Amino acid sequence: MTGRTGLGAQRVTRRTGDRLVLDGLTLTLRPGETVGLIGPNGSGKSTLLRLLAGVLAPSGGVVTLDGRPLGELGRRTVARRVAVVEQHAHTQTELTVRDVVALGRVPHRRAWTAATAADGRAVTEALDRTGLTDRADQSWHTLSGGERQRTQIARALAQEPRELLFDEPTNHLDIQHQLDLLDLVASLPVTTLVALHDLNLAAMYCDRLLVLAGGLAVAEGTPGEVLTADLIKRVYGVSAEVTAADGHPVIRFLRRGAQGPARGASPGRPGSGGPRAAHVGGSERDR
């Protein structure tokens, strides 16, 4: 059930042409938690993030913010509450790090009005929180991949959101920068939904996981409940050993016995009791 406060989705469906990309998905984000969104390519992760951000409209069902349908709220209202960090950000314009972060204040200002003292404070605090104060006057184009991701997080924080959505923020980063970035994400005082490919990182940093496959939510629960060898086999089509360390699952993938996901299978509906799981199907792309 969608809560009265915060961001959520109730039985949302999304079609692209004749393809069913999301099928009756329900999600409630609890205040202050970090939720990991995992699943194979084409499972609907990016589509769900865009629905929750109001960038796409559902074909059926409803996305709500504080109990009100997102479609009833203006784009500026949503942008003040919900910030999105995409996989990649590019610009041909010569911008400094401070310029990029200041873009997060656009939802809080009327068109063509000058920045206020509150805008300046928000930008300064976002730079400080992301460790970019000493880079504020550096050109965006001279930054490393990890620094660009941190700049995008700072831009999102400057919006002063209560909900923050990440689409594969660790892609193309080396291990050190992946850990640094997720340490930062986990420390943020906001509700966070983050799409991840790396199951071990999801287990380390997320309070709760939602597994998508073929447009369906096939499992939901804590990392320890969700990340089992059985579910990994059914969802990803690979064999794995799952152990525990420091209170979270650790996954080791096995070469022998691994096989690709079955084609043409239809995911079952989640059952009751414990983490929900179902067989995987569909080959819809979520991009």
Structure report:
With 287 residues, this protein is an alpha/beta fold. The chain has a domain at 7-92 and 162-253: P-loop containing nucleotide triphosphate hydrolases (Rossmann fold, 3-Layer(aba) Sandwich), CATH 3.40.50.300. The chain has 9 helices and 12 strands. It has helices spanning 45-53, 75-81, 97-102, 117-129, 145-158, 175-187, 199-205, 223-226, 229-236, and strands at residues 7-16, 19-28, 34-38, 60-65, 68-69, 82-85, 163-167, 191-195, 208-213, 216-221, 240-245, 248-253. The strands form 3 sheets. A 6-stranded mixed sheet has the order 6-7-8-3-9-10, with helices on both faces. The chain has a 4-stranded antiparallel sheet with strand order 2-1-4-5. A two-stranded antiparallel sheet has the order 11-12. α6 (175-187) links the parallel β7 and β8. α4 (117-129) packs antiparallel against α5 and α5 (145-158) runs parallel beside α6 (175-187). The chain is globular, with a radius of gyration of 19 Å. It starts with 6 loop residues before the first strand and ends in a 34-residue tail after the last strand. Residues 258-274 and 276-287 have low confidence and may be disordered.
